[in-house]
Automatic annotation (TrEMBL):
UniProt: (2E)-4-hydroxy-3-methylbut-2-enyl diphosphate binding residues: H37, H70, H120, T158, S214, N216, S258
Signal peptide segment: none
Active site: E122
Species assigned in the record: Megasphaera hexanoica
UniProt gene name: ispH
Lineage, highest ranks first: Bacteria, Bacillati, Bacillota, Negativicutes, Veillonellales
Binding site for [4Fe-4S] cluster: C12, C92, C186
Main function: Catalyzes the conversion of 1-hydroxy-2-methyl-2-(E)-butenyl 4-diphosphate (HMBPP) into a mixture of isopentenyl diphosphate (IPP) and dimethylallyl diphosphate (DMAPP). Acts in the terminal step of the DOXP/MEP pathway for isoprenoid precursor biosynthesis.
Protein name: 4-hydroxy-3-methylbut-2-enyl diphosphate reductase
Family under the similarity heading: Belongs to the IspH family.
Assigned GO CC terms: ribosome
Amino acid sequence: MNVYVADACGFCYGVRRAVEMASSAASGTHTLGPIIHNPQVVARLAERGVSPVDSLESLREGDTILIRSHGVGPDVYREAEKKRLNVVDATCPHVKKAQQDAKKIIEKEKNLIIIGEKAHPEVISISQWGANRAIILDREEMARALPPMEQAGVVVQTTFSQEQFKRIEQILADKIPDLTVYMTICTATQQRQQAAIDLAGKMDVMIVIGGKNSANTGRLAQVCREQGCPTYHIETAAELDTAWFKGMKNIGITAGASTPDWIIQEVVNIMENLQAEATEVMSEELLDKY
Ligand code: F3S
């Protein structure tokens, strides 16, 4: 049995930075919402006294609030200032750029179009920087249904699919004479998906590690299955079932952008032990044979 790990997997730059900032924050620090979609990381931070809150309401002067990588709208910064809170800003720089681009578009009195999922916290934050005046869409038919307009500026959710973006951009370019596109897609998601596709195409089975509620991990599992590769989405090594690998030769491992290295390593270690056992059994079988 051979075990391979995808070339690009696990924490992206923005998530790693946010988790490191949370890990080095003082006990008593709060994060505005769970820092990432990974319950094990959230639990570890809670043990160190860093826990999530839903809003700033319960916080008092001098308390510290950490803003996660998805970012927040300007109202949150204003409220934090008013309450005299200490702000640790872990907004991913790529998200920050998209927020600032949205602000710029509105300041130039242009129509603002955000290509992204309406309910995603990052898109909500970008929209808030655009004075809540954005038209938000994520499907081609939504772009086709737009009313006629002379000009618009476009910002894209950082994790949006490149292909889908290109299709929507083409429709907008055909409809809107004065269109400025701020390409704010971040390559981390794309790289993880491409590495998973490349690996799944050559494997007998894939293990995808990441939170069950993590959209990007779910998408990784989906692209592996689309390659026709049997795929198991697990959150931790404890969910591994040796029966999955019976008679399998090549096992691939990948992980979502919110999966920490220690969880990936645990899975790799178990798989390597299985690999060693399988080699031993094989040698014993060969000895019996000859
Ligand atoms: Fe930032 Fe890209 Fe990750 S936008 S949070 S580095 S997926």
